[in-house]
Specification:
Length: 187
């Protein structure tokens, strides 16, 4: 167990050090732009990435609100279990995100997809729809050469194929960006 812990820590640190900081800054700027223009931010993922999407919503919707600053409007497309399961049952699992975007997406909104493989069909379909609707798209994906990287306006590649490391990085990025945003607001 000790060796596994050391190896995992070693890979995690290597991946953090290899992340493209400029891509994180780019996402930060897109989030600030969405806030200042009162745009929606939609985030989605499957499995552990879905849980990360929910965590992003908590940290941004609650964690950065400070005094008189404009509030972010961030929504996880997997948080509403009744609509998620109804869409999956009545349409298909591939449509659970796109059908929600059809209800709420407006031009210039920001749509973020979290995935390890970058090939989640339901996220790919939603990102394509977002592009067609003149929204901005951003993908954070693992090192699998996934389709999400090809179709998104902006991509942050996590240089790992270890699902745990990639999902850890999803949360690392959330915490870096949300804590920095709060720091800026506090001055």
């Amino acid at each position: 167990m000790k060796n596994f812990i050391n190896e995992y820590n070693k890979e995690f640190i290597q991946v953090i050090q290899a992340l493209d900081d400029q891509k994180m800054i780019e996402l930060y700027q897109l989030l600030e732009e969405a806030i200042s223009n009162e745009r929606n931010v939609f985030i989605m993922g499957n499995g552990g990435s879905s849980a990360s999407a929910s965590h992003w919503v908590c940290d941004f919707n609650k964690g950065i609100n400070y005094h008189y600053f404009p509030r972010i409007k961030m929504y996880s497309l997997s948080d509403n279990t009744p609509i998620f399961s109804a869409l999956g049952n009545d349409f298909s699992y591939d449509d659970v995100f796109i059908e929600q975007l059809k209800n709420y997406l407006t031009p210039d909104d920001l749509v973020i997809g979290l995935s390890v493989s970058g090939n989640s069909k339901n996220i790919v379909k939603a990102l394509k729809y977002a592009n067609e609707s003149n929204a901005k798209t951003y993908a954070i994906i693992g090192d699998y050469d996934g389709e999400m990287g090809d179709i998104s306006d902006h991509v942050l590649y996590v240089p790992s194929q270890n699902y745990g490391i990639v999902e850890d990085i999803h949360m690392y990025i959330c915490h870096v960006l949300s804590q920095y945003m709060l720091k800026v607001r506090k001055g």
